[in-house]
Design a protein that fits this description.
The structure is a homodimer. Chain A is of the alpha+beta class. Helix content of chain A is 33%, strand content 31%. The first copy, chain A, has helices at residues 2-8, 17-29, 89-111, 158-170, 173-179; strands spanning 35-46, 49-54, 57-59, 62-64, 70-74, 116-128, 145-154, 183-188. In chain A, the strands form three sheets. Chain A has a three-stranded antiparallel β-sheet, with no helix packed on it. The first copy, chain A, has a two-stranded antiparallel sheet with strand order 3-4. The longest helix of chain A has 23 residues, at 89-111. Chain A is globular and about 55 Å long. Chain A starts with a helix and ends with a strand. At the A-B interface, helix 2, strand 1, strand 2, strand 5 and helix 3 of A face helix 2, strand 1, strand 2, strand 5 and helix 3 of B. Strand 7 of chain A pairs parallel with strand 8 of chain B, so a sheet runs across the interface.
Chain lengths: 189, 189
């Protein structure tokens, strides 16, 4: 463990692992502080074009205000007779999966004392649009299979790099959201 | 049906329903053209900060090139000892769900001859971060429950507005992705 600690201090992937380990220790003693609520609101603009706004969230037992809000637009592409003003909603989900796994790779690498040089993820997801068009009720609306490929340059063996990705996948929120069912309750007005 | 068709032409939500119905008819005769592949690539920037790029996709039997690429950044917030440069990956997923349901509401309203005035979706998702922190293996990494609330102003009865949202939900790709499991295969280097 001592050797490992000294290795950790020599690499810098920009992740504050000390703080994260401290948070883990604190939350083990106060699990109610681990209950988070993430939020987004979405405004219809025109056609299939919309703008989501992301700001405050709840966590560590309190409202967490950011000093800014983020906006994320979405639209449908021209082959769906739309204006292609922004990525499609399903491409946003893919970027959520990509960024979640990538952040995890950086955090795990920092924890394991592995200096990263570059991380690139390439994602492709199959979709049979007979589902969303209502042509065939046996076809699901969402993705068939998603393939994620990581190309990682780091000061580590091939096996150690594979283990980084495996650990990131094991702890990824978005990987879990996509691979397992979640209840969604929708209300109106 | 004749009455319905004439009603449709008097409303304008910016959705080309005629083209969509034509596409549905064409794809019924050529289901292989309905096989789409959506893509995103993601580049690690620093720490938990990354940038996804969204461009071409495959569909209608051919590569579909856009005349632009979209970028979507993600990061972790300051309470996770990160820089909060962009929304979190899970907030991107929420915005994907919001925008998918919102686009569906606009399309279904156009099809049903309902003029929309405003559509706003508010989403909140519970997450127990004991999962992603590895404190408790019985806690999932992703969301507990997601609540979506729509506030819609339209020239329609309350029941008709509720039916719009129900139909959008029934045909939403992202709603399906989140509420049902999808296989994700991850490879490295």
């Amino acid at each position: 463990m001592t050797t490992n600690t000294s290795t950790v201090t020599t690499v810098d992937n920009g992740v504050n692992v000390t703080a994260l380990l401290g948070a883990r220790e604190a939350l083990q003693k106060a699990p109610e502080a681990a209950q988070f609520k993430w939020r987004a609101s979405c405004e219809w603009l025109k056609g299939t074009h919309s703008r989501s706004t992301i700001g405050n969230f709840f966590g560590l037992g309190a409202e967490q205000s950011r000093n800014k809000t983020f906006t994320v637009e979405a639209d449908h592409p021209q082959v769906f007779a739309a204006e292609d003003n922004a990525p499609t909603p399903v491409e946003l989900v893919l970027s959520g999966l990509a960024s979640c796994l990538t952040a995890g790779v950086a955090a795990v690498a920092q924890r394991r004392g592995i200096q990263l040089h570059s991380v690139k993820a390439s994602l492709e997801a199959d979709m049979d649009i007979q589902g969303i068009l209502g042509i065939d009720d046996d076809v699901r609306n969402g993705f068939g299979t998603i393939r994620v490929h990581f190309d990682i340059r780091a000061d580590a063996s091939e096996d150690d790099i594979k283990a980084l990705v495996a650990q990131s996948q094991k702890r990824s929120a978005v990987f879990d959201i996509i691979t397992n069912p979640t209840n969604v309750f929708v209300t109106v007005n």
